[in-house]
Structures are given as structure tokens and as C-alpha cells.
Amino acid sequence: MAKTTPLGPTVRPGTVVEFMHGDQPQLAWVLEESSGKLRLLTINKREMKLPAARLLPWHGPVLSADASRQDIQNILNERQEARGEIQAGLDVMELWELSQGEVESAPLNWFADLLWEEWDEDRLAALGRAMLQAKTHFKFRPPVFEIWPAEKVEQKLRQQAEEKEREAITSAGQILLKDLWDAHNQGRKPRLPDLDPELADGLERILKGKVGETLDETDRKIWTAISKGLPDVPHLALLLAQAWGVLPAHHNYRLDEAEYAWDDAWSQSFSSEIKEIEKGFSNQAQTPEIEDAVSIDASTTRDIDDAFRIEKHGTGYRLSIVLARPEAHWTFGSALDKAVLHRATSLYLPEGTSHMMPERLGTGLYSLLAGEARPALVTDFFLAADGALEKVEPRTAWVRVKANTTYEDADRAIRERSDESLMLAHDLATHLLERRLASGACVIRKPEPVVTLTGSGAQTSVNIDLKTPSPLSELIISEFMILANSGLALWARDNGVPLLHRTQDIALPQEAAGIFTEPAEILRSVKLLLPPTLETAPKRHAALGVSAYAPITSPLRRYTDFINMAQVCAFLASGEPRLDRDELDQLITHLNMRIQAVGAVQRFRPRYWKLVYLAKRRREFQPAVLVDEAGPMATLAMPHLQVNVRAPKKMLGDKLYPGQRFQINFSRIDPLTNEIRLGEALEE
């Protein structure tokens, strides 16, 4: 059959044509034509008017203009069926492969010539229809088809697959989430729909991403769509995920928000870097210079990063503080370094401990374990008889700690006067505290509740006991660590070594200085303080009563200390710090963000478990003390739990004063939303 030319300048009556309607080619018969305007009869038996410019660039056959309506309908039906069969047998992808790279665009008959030696109107129309549907490979720009290049096709196929997935996941997600919400409200197990595993995985990913607020823009849109119609309640995604069972009861969503991986599994992907560090450690191990230092920590502590030894020096003291050096064989800027920076600090929660460093390093290779040779920063502090600091001399050395002592054992040795070194240490610590108090320090001492968990998931039970204090040994460690951080900050200032400083350069009134133990006094003093800031300029830390303070004593646990340790040790080795002040300033922005995010977990998670504890005992009376009665709401403290609760003053009576004691219970406690409402308050 002779090849016909696609649509010419005019189309006469009796011609079979196609036009686009609802994103699909529509078959029609030309009844009349006048100056480029057509009257058509469609295959759906509708008459309509259409500009000739709207026709697709293929037409025919041209038949009798005098055909009856029934004949026209029969012809259109035959053409529709024939073209459908031809289209079903076409491989448009093969056509794209044949044409891709030959030309950028071409009319439809050019493509037909690639497929057939002979073609007619039905074949041409079927091909046009197929190419219109292949939007990932061709672009129709009348009267030609553009041929997408391979890169564009790959991108469009990926987008098409993603869109298909979004549609499927949205449809399934709306059904699933509604049932999960009903199950949560009714306290029953959900009636889960039969989900394709990939869809289930996608919905689980979106739910968990919403819990941690880590969704990308695409998944945020899906979440908006699948959660439409559900109530806007706090932690909706978490409640749904728990109803589904993909997250456990009491899930710590703040870890997700901080993007902080719990336990040590995160470090497994850095095993090769860790092995290199271990190799560097073994290659540089030396005979210890110091073997008589001791550490004092809690009995559960595994990441031991400080120890000390002390002796009389004339009428004063020589105190050597030994600090772990986890940066000794470290590669800054490596993938492991970036991961540790992202963690920012270790977390010590009722559930357990998650260490900043890989445990092979932080609780193993660099922890100051008794009897093990370790690289360390050793700083000799020379002090007068009254505790005045006279000289600071840091150096790097290998050490072997003699003993890892607990607070309880050290306290007992001081009380029983059985260890002269610890007694000397306590004497010095007493002088150091007195000097800080004279400099305006605000020292807060309060009970320390210990939260213990047993069981898991919904069966977790909470118990809270007050820790038995070890005031003598605790004083030693707190004062020695403040001395180390402030003394090395002054040494660094005098030697031009930039460090990360904790500063609180504010003027405190005289009543803010002292040791405070009563809840009302503590709150009043805390209100006078501002949170310390992290900066490179050495300035006063008012609450500690020191003129400079650069945290360095916990390099296994805090990245600020880790950086400061590297600064000091680099200077001691080469005369130059690792980073200059500008580089430290640039680091502060990201480090502050991570400290804030991870710190929120440390602040709020213990309170969550305390509220779980109280919720089980909501109607039981708890001792409380009034600490603030300014304004319409009063604040009550529960010292045995270290939890404060606010209540309308009218619930407490007419005459209120700080220190007033009550017995209280609660009308509502929601640990997840941090909500606690007073039920009754009886004055003691």
C-alpha cells in the first residue's frame, strides 16, 4: 500500500481522525469542515465542534461523506479494534532503542519507516497512540515526537517508579493508619490489612521517620496524605507505630530526633579504622612513667578517663591529674571522627549507657583500667597550703593506674583514716572548695534518685531509690576535676593555646554564693544563673567561681573535652595547637547543635521514667515542698524524685511560703507528653 502523508492543510468530510481528550486519543469522523473548523461525530456517538489544529497528526482512511450514522459507528468501532490490536503488539522500547541517538525529533511516519516496510492509517495511528503513552521515552511536540536521551529516560523511569510507589503506599497507608488509630483508642490489637512486604516496609519507614522528624520532602507529603483525617495529637506517629508493633512501648523517640544510635552496634561499620587505631596503639606502647595513680568512680563505670596521685610539696601540695588520651592515635576528619562528633557525648540513662566512643576504644583500649599501660596527659598542679594554684605543668606520658576505686570504698578509707593519700586529697579538696566559695561559687547539693528498670517493653517496671552519698570522695573528684579544667584553661591562655571554654561571665549577687541544699534555696539560686556558653575566649565561670574553665577531664565521654585534649597534646608535641581559634569557632556552631540535640535526651529521658513511676502511683501521696509562690501558679518540688510540679495557688491554701511542706497526689500524668497535674495537696 502506498504511504500516505500525515495530516495535510485540510481534512474533508468522511475522514477518520483522532484528537486528545482526557489525556487519551479519541477516534472521530469528520461530518463537516469549514475554514479549519470541524464538526465531528465521536466513537461515543457525540457530536462536537473542534478546530482542525486540535487533531493529532495522523488521519484516515478517507471514506464516503454520505455514510449513514450506523455505518460511521461501525467503521469507527472497526478502526478502534484494529488499532488496539496493532498497538498491543508494538514494542515501543525497541523503537526507542532503534531511534535513540539517530535524531533528536522526527514526525510519526519516520518512526513507522523504522518498523515497517509498508504501513497504513491503522498502523500509523496505533504507533502514535503507543508513543503518546511512552512518556518516559518520547515527548510529543506536535507535529513531531522528541526522543529522550538515555539519562533522561533513566530519570523519568525512576520518577515513574517512585510515583507509583507513592500512590500505592498512600492508598494502603490510609487504610492501615485508620485501623491503627482505632486499635490504639480501643485498646485492641489492630486488624492489619494484607500488605505487600515492600509497602509494609515503606510505611514502617515513614512512621519511624515521622517519629524522629527525619522525613524528607517526599515522605512528608506521603505522611500528610496517609494521616489525613486522623486527630492532630502529640506523638501521633509514635502511638501508631506502637499500636502496629514496629516500635516498642516506652520507645525513646528523643534518640530518633537526635539521630543518636543506641548501644555500640553503630561502631561495627568502622571496624577497619578501629583496627588501625589499635595497631597504632600497640606500636607506640611504652614503659609507664607513673604507676601509683588511682581513680575514683561509680562501681558501674567502665569508661575511666581520670585518675590522680598526690603528695606534700613543701608546705603545699603537688597533685598529678592523669587524663586518658583517646586522641593519641586518632585521625581527625575521618569517617569515624565525624561519627563520634555527631554523637557528641555519652548518654547515661536508666536503660543503660551508650558511649560516645566505640567501646573497643572508650571502655577498652584507652580507659584507665588498673594494671594496663595507657597513653595519658599528666598535669602536675603545684598548690600552696591554702589551695592557691601556683604552677601548672602538663606533659604526655604512658601510665599504669594502680587501682580503680569506688566512691564508697574511698569514702570509707577517708572516714576510717586508713589511706593517707586519700586523706591528703580530701584536705586539698576542702581548701579548693573554700577558695571557690570565697570567689562567689554557687554549689548545689541535692538528693540523687537512682531509677532502676526491670523487664522490657510494656512489662517494664520502674523503681526509684535515693543514692547513698559518698560526700568525702565525691568532694575530691568534683574539686580535682574543676581544678584540672580551670588550671589547664589558664595554662592554655598563658601559652596561646586556643581551647573550647565553658563561660558564664555574669555578675552574681552575694546571696547567690554558697552551698545550697534546701529546695527553695536551690531554685532561688538557679534563677540567678544563666546557662554557660561554649566559646574560644577564656572568661569567668561565675557559678564555679573560677576565672576560666575549659572542659578536658572527660575526653572519653564528651567531644568538647576530646578536642581540648587534642589541642593541648598537639601543642606539647610540636609547639602548635591542632586548630587555630578561627577553626575552633567554626567547629562550635555544629558542636553546639549536636550537644543541644543529644543533651535533650539526657535531660528528659530520666524524667520520663520518673513520670512512669508516678503514673503507677498517681493516687498515692508523695512528699513535696513549696519552692516558689510568685504569680498565679506555685511550684512544688519533690526532692526524693527531683521532679517539680506547678499548681494553681488556690489548691494549696491561703498562706503560702517557701519551704512549706505538703503531701500531694495527681489527677493526671502522661509521661509521653510530659504532663503532670496536681490532684490534691494536704499541708503537713
UniProtKB/TrEMBL annotation:
<dbReference type="InterPro" id="IPR012340">
    <property type="entry name" value="NA-bd_OB-fold"/>
</dbReference>
<protein>
    <submittedName>
        <fullName>Ribonuclease catalytic domain-containing protein</fullName>
    </submittedName>
</protein>
<dbReference type="InterPro" id="IPR050180">
    <property type="entry name" value="RNR_Ribonuclease"/>
</dbReference>
<dbReference type="Pfam" id="PF00773">
    <property type="entry name" value="RNB"/>
</dbReference>
<dbReference type="InterPro" id="IPR001900">
    <property type="entry name" value="RNase_II/R"/>
</dbReference>
<feature type="domain" description="RNB">
    <location>
        <begin position="290"/>
        <end position="574"/>
    </location>
</feature>
